Amino acid sequence: xxxxxxxxxxxxxxxxxxxxxxxxxxxxxxxxxxxxxxxxxxxxxxxxxxxxxxxxxxxxxxxxxxxxxxxxxxxxxxxxxxxxxxxxxxxxxxxxxxxxxxxxxxxxxxxxxxxxxxxxxxxxxxxxxxxxxxxxxxxxxxxxxxxxxxxxxxxxxxxxxxxxxxxxxxxxxxxxxxxxxxxxxxxxxxxxx
Length: 193
Prior knowledge:
By secondary structure, this protein is mostly helical. 53% of the residues lie in helices and 6% in strands. It has a two-stranded antiparallel ribbon with strand order 1-2. It is globular, with a radius of gyration of 23 Å.
């Protein structure tokens, strides 16, 4: 039963827009406690939740169907005349994501699954049932997930305020070095996704 509940949570998280209110940890702990009874099934689920394996095919199919339905609904809403003029959204490019660490997760791991794994007692049931899977899951929940990189420019206002100074700063930045005349530097900033 805990396996089915955890699969349902996994499906809803993959679909997007799901918020549990921090109640999923209990289900994840129950799944970990059930590992001695179903070591292969629970092991596979834990590897998927730790972002070490691809999501099961039936979940991918369900997520695709739900997203397609949402896209159709959005398209129908857009065909109707809007009551309020939508504002352009603000945003920025997160840039390229760095490659995941060799033993780390491929993507962000659900924080409640992470907490359940690090709680101690529930995870020990998985360790006894399937030590190899437990090691891989533990590494994945402990290693940082891949993050995007933002390219930002630091330009002192005094030297680069003029169009000539700004052009020089852009040239130095596009060359990937610090500008000796204006002090502009290309800097990589990491952020959490």
